[in-house]
Design goal:
It comes from Sporothrix stenoceras. Belongs to the methyltransferase superfamily. LaeA methyltransferase family. Pfam families: Methyltransf_25 (PF13649). The two termini are 31 Å apart. The longest helix has 22 residues. Helix content is 37%, strand content 21%. With 301 residues, the protein is an alpha/beta fold. The relative contact order is 0.16.
Length: 301
């Protein structure tokens, strides 16, 4: 998890990037859903049943964990869909981006924890839904299976895991001979140089099979491609803005780790970032594509 390269821009800029992308990219491209409809229906059915069950008197009608929570924005959004008595806990090993208590609902707690390590025994088996988003840039090929196993321990029987990721195998700039494409390919070479590819691992592609092979059932995947929105009146602009912010933060991460190829100084990163902005947003001479995967699975009853 310490490999994550997007923590090296100004803290305020990184917080803004995470929250802006949630509202303007990830929710809209998935059909304006915070959770998949089947998972939302499951949560609402639990709320209805438990509010009528004396055995749950004084207990949360539903309990949800968000792992790799960042600012906690996903939980803040989800809170509006659930009763204020719902238990909503966010976990992250980096607490610097946590929203202050005053800017989140009182039932949203943000706590320090690392998904690469076993979760405390007292929270294992207590959640109806575990949500994970955008860990891919911090993971090595050998990390995925043990993290999946750790996430499974959090769930009650029948509970859902929803894991959302961008895959690096469909991270492309167009035209193929453009400076934007060269920069995006350079980012992928840097990713590979850090030992984050190999061994036939292509996750999140195939993450459904990994989950089914490791104690989950009914795993399935949906993929949302930003290229499908290139002609959309608003989402073309928001997805390309998102890509620009990723490039900006990632190139600064390259510099922070000692530099890579021709990106050795902050000035190098700024130069390439500025060129990407011109191509993507100002002159619109290039486009970028990335695929956003939503993998859903359940812990058996």
């Amino acid at each position: 998890m310490s490999l994550y390269p997007l923590n090296h821009s100004e803290l305020s800029s990184e917080i803004e990037r995470l929250e802006w992308n949630h509202h303007n990219v990830f929710v809209p491209i998935t059909g304006n859903t915070v959770v998949a409809p089947e998972v939302d229906a499951y949560l609402q059915s639990l709320v209805k049943a438990r509010e009528a069950d004396p055995a749950f008197a004084g207990q949360p009608p539903v309990s949800i964990a968000d792992v790799g929570t960042g600012t906690g924005i996903w939980l803040v959004d989800l809170a509006s869909l659930l009763p204020p008595t719902a238990r909503l806990d966010g976990y992250d090993f980096n607490t610097s981006k946590f929203r202050p208590a005053a800017s989140r609902p009182p039932n949203v707690q943000l706590l320090e924890s690392n998904a690469a390590e076993p979760f405390p025994a007292e929270i294992q088996g207590t959640y109806d839904l575990v949500h994970v988003r955008l860990l891919v840039l911090g993971l090595k090929p050998s990390d995925w299976q043990p993290i999946a196993a750790n996430l499974r321990t959090l769930l009650r029987p029948g509970g859902y895991l929803v894991w959302e990721e961008i895959d690096v195998y469909h991270f492309e700039g167009f035209p193929a001979d453009s400076e934007l494409a060269d920069t995006m390919n350079q980012m992928l070479r840097f990713h590979k140089s850090r030992g984050q590819e190999g061994g036939g691992v292509t996750y999140p592609i195939g993450l459904d099979k990994l989950l089914d092979d490791n104690g989950f059932e009914g795993a399935r995947q949906e993929v949302f491609k930003t290229s499908d929105f290139w002609e959309h009146p608003t989402l073309r602009g928001t997805t390309m803005t998102s890509l620009y912010t990723i490039i900006s933060s990632y190139l600064q991460g390259m510099v922070h780790t000692g530099g890579f190829e021709d990106v050795k100084t902050k000035e190098d990163a700024v130069r390439k970032t500025s060129a990407a902005k011109v191509a993507l947003l100002d002159e619109k001479t290039a486009k970028g594509n990335f695929w956003y995967w939503r993998t859903t699975a359940r812990k058996p009853l």
